Structure prediction request, 188 residues.
Amino acid sequence: MLSIDMPAIEIGPLSSSAEIRSMLSELLIDVVAHGGSVGFMHPLPLEQAQAFWRNSLAAAALGARIVLGAFERDSLIGTVSLLLDCPPNQPHRAEIAKLMTRRDHRGRGVASSLIRAAETLAVEHRRSLLVLDTATDQGASAFYEKLGYVRAGEIPDYALKPHSGLTGTIVFWKRLQAEPLGATEAIR
Prediction:
């Protein structure tokens, strides 16, 4: 587990187990039910949530992504994914995805700690550029700007909201202090 500055909270990469998939699925269903725009519609069937996490954790086992979990004791209170599987001409970048915090733990620094942990892992994987997007309606643009992400632009009517209607998305980027992969290394 990665050490962070919050007492009693541990953050680290998750591996696939029935218990972890169950906790992740419960979190995803709750976030979607309360309007979180994370790629799913409400009501989100348990089987669909479980399949998403099964596939995500399988991709993590292959090195295509890292799924981080934030725990308070034995309870999963948040997650974020760092997507590493980029096209061959983009070995220097990664994408932040599926940042979610349990509603009763919001405002306590869990999401910030998850993002910092993802950034640290991105640097360890020699990624010098991170990108992400967040919904225009009820999204987290101010949160990402506070963490140093730069707004690249907005795409209107990008996705459906979990409870219906369209929302735009705001695209962000951030440079990291990483030794990027060279073109020769990326080919190997």
